[in-house]
Amino acid sequence: MNIWYVYILRCADDTLYTGVTTDPQRRLDEHNHDNRLAARYTRSRRPLTLVYQEQCADRSQACRREHEIRQLSRHEKEQLIKKYTLQSKKSRSAS
């Protein structure tokens, strides 16, 4: 059973794109470099940066969480990203 992730990318035009994957880094590379595998939305908004990822138990849970995140306002998404960034910095400095 694969671990699934929901992720948010920040596009070059400062819009946010949300998706699900089993490998966030691979998916970011596909969005940035592979026209065949990139989402239509992200192809014209490169470069993209991974700004948020959340581990989920399975694909179903990841898709539900993706839907929840997509329903958030821009401000709420930015708050989620900010909280994630702060937590990531804390865990790296504790290492």
Comma- or semicolon-separated keywords:
alpha+beta; 4 helices; 95 residues; 51% helix; GIY-YIG endonuclease; 22% strand; single chain
Question: Describe it for me?
Answer:
This protein is an alpha+beta fold. The protein has one domain (4-84): 3-Layer(aba) Sandwich (GIY-YIG endonuclease). 51% of the residues lie in helices and 22% in strands. It contains four helices and three strands, in the order ββααβαα. The chain has a three-stranded antiparallel beta sheet with strand order 2-1-3, sandwiched between helices. A hairpin with a 5-residue loop joins strand 1 and strand 2 (16-21).
Domain module count:
1
Number of helices: 4
Helix and strand run: EEHHEHH
Helix content: 40-55%
CA gyration radius, whole angstroms:
13 Å
CATH hierarchy: architecture: 3-Layer(aba) Sandwich
Provide the CATH topology.
GIY-YIG endonuclease
List unreliable stretches of 5+ residues.
none
CATH homologous superfamily (4th level) name: GIY-YIG endonuclease
Mean pLDDT: 95
Total strands: 3
Main sheet attributes: strand count, strand direction, barrel closure:
3 strands, antiparallel
Percentage of residues in DSSP E strands: 15-25%
Strand order of the largest sheet: 2-1-3
Query: How far do the termini sit from each other?
Result: 29 Å
What class would the helix/strand composition place it in?
Answer: alpha+beta
